[in-house]
Amino acid sequence: MFQTSAFDYINVLDKAADASWLRESTLANNIANATTPDYKRHDVDFQSLLERELMDTKYNRNLDSRIHNINLSRLTAASQIDMAAESFSYRLDGNNVDMHIENVELASEQIRYSALTDSISQEFARMRTAMGK
Questions:
Q1: Which range (24-28, 68-72, 81-85) has the least confidence?
Q2: How much of the chain, in percent, has pLDDT values that exceed 70?
Q3: pTM here?
Q4: Which residues contact 45 (CB under 8 A, 6 or more apart)?
Q5: What is the mean pLDDT of residues 41-59?
Q6: Distance of CA 92 to the CA centre of its chain
Q7: CB within 8 A of 108, min separation 6: which ones?
Q8: Sequence-distant contacts of 120-125: CB under 8 A, at least 24 apart
């Protein structure tokens, strides 16, 4: 069996893209429930989890060693939907979804997802170039 770190960045980008897709779906669900009484918005926070994981690694010499030592299973398990993102409500019906905020967050997440998938494609293109194909 060969030990390689060639796919380390791709693996992390893949987990980030999965979390971004989950956040897009969650935000779309918030928008769909904007008029549901007592509905509380949900959210997914993968970015702070990844930042913590990068800072917690004991191999802080360079980014390559940090990425190589990330625990991918922790990233997968922890990027779940936060069911009580914000429990307050300023509306009389008990719903706390603000359509303006949700739409801005959704647009931002769509841009992030597009950037992540482009980055994955570029990583594979670099590998093809390195292999001479």
A1: 81-85
A2: 72
A3: 0.78
A4: 82
A5: 76
A6: 32
A7: none
A8: 120/10, 120/13, 120/14, 120/17, 123/9, 123/10, 123/13, 124/10
